[in-house]
Amino acid sequence: MVVAKEPLPLTLEMTDEHEMLLQAVRDFAQKEIVPVAPHFDETGDFPLDNIRKMGAMGLMGIEVPEEYGGAGMDTLAYVLAMVEIAKADASHSTIMSVNNSLYCHGILKFGTEEQIRRYVTPVAQGEKIGAYSLTEPMSGSDAATMLSRAVLSEDGQHYIINGRKSWVTSGPVADYVVLFTMTDPDKGNKGITAFIIEADQPGFIRGKKEPKLGIRASATSELIFENYKVPVSNVLGKVGDGFKIAMTVLDAGRIGIAAQALGIAEAAYEASVAYARERQAFGGPIGQFQMIQQKIADMKTRIEASRALIYNAVLAKKRAMATGGRFTLEASMAKLFASETAAFVTDEAIQIHGGMGYSKELNVERYYRDARITRIYEGTSEVQRMVIARNELGLR
Ligand code: CAA
Questions:
Q1: Model pLDDT for residues 169-178, shown as the tens digit of each residue
Q2: Are 131 and 176 in contact (CB under 8 A)?
């Protein structure tokens, strides 16, 4: 008799619903995003109209159940949609990824029914914007060393928050923020608590919008808290569980960033193939030269390897949801490889395009700038390697 030691692996299936979503998102991205992406990149304006439209399509809460106003789909659907939006414009996909995986996912997983109804539904529908705030000026990769503080009021009804958070995606426009701050500094990472913050309350101050190399239409800023009063009912999960919540949420977020990186890489790759077919040099299209062919072969291979690692992470997440386990390793591998692939592919895309690749007349220079952040945010490549190696070596 054969006894299975582990549950049989679940599989990923591309359903008719996934196909329909893919087609709808592709059409929307090509019609509504591609034509305006250079303008938003140039001005750095926030593409609010498109974000509202994406919300109406269900793209701001793809995995949020329909009863809470989302599309009620799965992580595969999220990944498919992210790739298409990122292919059209990385900034739009950054806003989408924070709303979906860093904001909605965290509240859905750790929030109360009341918190979900109040704070997830309007974001999933694109009426409000969500943000996630972990990083501080002096704590980025070493996330547990934060200096901001939340102190319980004497009557035990509120926490008073003071401190400065940095690099908050959608910080300049967010209506609600999932905030991680220290409630018990003596306990290190076990002294961090997650809160749901409303932006329109006294003591919530938005810092200046950061001027950035890429994803320029995704607004980023500091958030400053000056005696901000938050009710205890807005604690997300348990007091002291904030670090684990932050890390769990980032596991899901990293799959989204991997999909974003894949979308940027695909856009750069498709432009390169078209250019290599059209551009003439030395009596024929440049694609006939082996040095260009090598680039195309390596770009394509790394893109497909990224896709495979992303699907592997989606599958691991599906299994983890069924068994209560984690998918940290698979999410980190997908994010590491896809973001480094996006850097490689966008760089080679410029090389294939030559001078035209360096010009703002084409989109490839934007893809190159936009790809850069995927190796930094939601955990740098160095942090992903640390997570992967620690997992393999059984280290902490
Ligand atoms: N899921 C659940 N729990 C986790 C976890 C995970 N993925 N990772 C760690 N933990 C738990 C550990 O099990 C451990 O718990 P116990 O003490 O109970 O055993 C606890 O958390 C501490 O773990 P570590 O000792 O491994 O923690 P560490 O301090 O060494 O840090 C780290 C590990 C991986 C480097 C982590 O700090 C990290 O991921 N840093 C990067 C942070 C990051 O990604 N920042 C980006 C912020 S978001 C952003 O980019 C802005 C935006 O708006 C998009």
A1: 999 999 999 9
A2: yes
Could you identify the atom of ligand 1 that is nearest to the CA of residue 168?
Answer: 53
pLDDT digits (tens, 9 = 90+) for 158-214: 999 999 999 999 999 999 999 999 999 999 999 999 999 999 999 999 999 999 999
280 three-class SS: strand
Ligand 1 geometric centre to CA of 381 (Å): 14
Rounded Cα distance, 167 and 122, in Å = 24
| Separation CA 259–CA 239 (nearest Å) | 32
- For the question of residue 67 being annotated catalytic, the response is no
Average pLDDT of the segment spanning 41-49: 97
Record the tokens describing residue 231, joined without a space: 């009710």
User: Nearest C-alpha to atom 13 of ligand 1 is from which residue?
Assistant: 244
Sequence-ordered strand ranges (E) for the chain: 130-133, 149-152, 158-169, 176-182, 192-198, 204-209, 220-231, 235-236, 280-281, 284-285
